[in-house]
Amino acid sequence: MSLEKLSSNKHYEGILVKYKFRSAALGDTYTQFNLFLPANAAQGKVPVLIYLAGLTCTEDNGAQKGGFMRDAAAQGIALLFPDTSPRGAGIDGEDVDWDFGSGAGFYLNATNTKWSKHYNMLSHVTQELPQVLEKAGLPLDFTRQSIFGHSMGGHGALTVYLASLLSGTKQYRSASAFSPICEPSEVPWGTKAFSGYLAGGVAEGKDRY
Predict the structure, then answer these.
(1) What is the average per-residue pLDDT within 187-207?
(2) N-to-C CA span, the chain
(3) Tell me, what's the pLDDT at 1?
(4) Is the pTM of the predicted complex or chain greater than 0.90?
(5) Label partner for 181 (CA 20 to 30 A): which of 16, 151, 157, 204?
(6) Order of strands, edge to edge, in the sheet holding 78-81?
């Protein structure tokens, strides 16, 4: 799971880097993410704010359009931008609809056997990415991490934050959600995702997500 640097650009005295690695959580497919490191990361580890993007997005939407880096730089906070799903898993039907499959991983762990090898964005975001980044020696303090997101990503941010609180791990200091999918078991985007990714369908999604 070694990181490959794909690009690097200066932003507000800090640096935005795109990385690639082979993800075990996503079925041994390659995944990409963007990481903004503020200037003070040169002196030691900095807090991390994770942004979860919405349907059809990639790791680039928040980094290129969000406008977050100026304020993150001023506060000395790193920004982590994961992708929204596995890419190139080769599963029949994953590229048919814009709101299911590629670009629409819904930040859950699939239990339907058709999808469960690859569609594990929950584990990817909450476990794999922090482990990979820490192993790479990047100056990030995951004891001071928070999470936020938009639309599908807003739902993801809320669910992982609340699950962390309920489990007692308290992985995140805070959570914020912009126009989140608040009741996925009652709206078409959510019911479609739960019915496809989860063996127990909407009932399982309502219980867990």
Answers:
(1) 93
(2) 28
(3) 63
(4) yes
(5) 16
(6) 4-11, 14-23, 29-37, 78-81, 46-52, 140-150, 175-178
